[in-house]
Amino acid sequence: MVRLGFIIGLLAIVGGLLSGLAAHRAYDQELTIDRIALARAIDIHASLVQDRLTERELLGRVASGLFRTPSVLRADMLEPLRSAIYAFKTDFVSAGWVLRLRPDEIAEAERVLRNAGFPNAAIRNSQGPIKAPDDSASSLDVLMDVEPRINATTEQLGRSLTDHLQLGPTLARALRERKPVASDPFELRHRNDTIGLVLAAPVQQSGSDEAIGFVTFSYELAPLMLTNDDNAMFSVALRDPRAADRELIADDRGVVSVRAVPAENPPSVLRNERFGGRDWILAYYPKTSSVTRAQNSAMLTAAIGIVLTMLICGLFGYISYSNLRLRREIEVRIGFERRLTAVIDELNHRVKNILAVIQSIVTRTLRHGSDVDVARELLIGRIHAMSNVVSLLTDSQWQGVKLNGLLDSRAVPHAARIAVNGPDIMVSARAAQSLALLFFELASHADSAPHGQQPNVVAQWTVTGSGDDALFHFRWEEFNSTAATRREDSEFGVILLDRVVPEALGGQAKRYFTDVSYVYEITAPLATVVDQGERERTGRIAAPVKPRP
To answer: Where is the CHASE domain (predicted)?
Structure first.
């Protein structure tokens, strides 16, 4: 079991190490893959944004280059460009024609707008209509045409953009740099106050370097910040480098709002884009943390590895335990078969011994010249004594017989006349067979007392000494028996008393008459008498017994 536990523990350690290694590998791979995927998605989005901005700026350049007309004080200047600007399929909100109007052209401009049927034909600025040429000392940038012509856009016609907070500086810069210029982000009123910007491209009159006006395109900023994918790995914010503490963000509905640049959770990537002669910054914020995703994948991998390790260890332990239990059962069965074989061999040996003893008993009892009636009685008694002791040994599985039980058995003639005194020793199987014949032989010759008097028999035994020097003493005394009254021992009885039993017990015996009794004594080493198995199991050879009256 210790070795099995060590092997299972070693498997668990190896499995845990492999699970940790797999989790670390999964963490690195997931982190790398996530970062690569995020970088690739950002590159694709930034490239699309740059392409869109390039198309917008190209549209402004193309539209400004298509003006080839000697007269620009008209209300339909965008008519020749309509098919061209829509062919680009850009996402502009509106297009406009802004004329650089001299003060002396204000009246003519109002007439042109009225003739075109626009409801508000007055040339005006943020303070109100401009009536006289003296009201403005320099040229005005006036919106004279728009596309598409809807109520939200045509109501702006005739308005001077020179004093517009965002468009005024944009037009001045475009005039100065002679190239398309983008305005600051502001709310586009004709688009429900959606935040956007205007790209203004200067227009030069044919054959002159002087700018006569501007083609403008207004755009929403939301499309630049939308990923068009609900499962996108990032969100986008737009920053103007000139306002580094603020940025624009768009929600899922395309509504753009302004927020302060967050101090925590900075963007993972910043991309610079060029549009309208200005630099813009796209800030990419990951929606989920790559580290968190990698940690979750690593934890899942480790959990799966640990579960598999536990299953393998459990299965290995179950199989090993089953094999161990099966091996033990096989060993027990083999041991049982060996013991059974030994028992059978021992039984065969004991049966042979018993048959040899019976043969000897029959031969000695039925010797030539014996009285048939007496020989028959002795033969039956002796065989009965052997049968009784075999029955007692069988009941104890041949582990020994109590000495007191041998004297109490029905095989001993006139057992009721025998007074027993001594410790209840558990004698061995071999000693039991010899003592059973001994007790029968002694008792069978003690029943012929003269004049109807029954002898009083006392059987007692003691144990002296200890350890290997312990001795067993047995004394049989028949009172009221003399050499004249006691029946003479048979030839078999003499041999049994004087030679067979002492030799079987490894001791010495003697028999004699006193003035009042017949005595038989035997002394033998205790080790040859008692059952050693019982002695080792209980630590003692006998329990004290009360003398039988």
So the answer is: 142-225
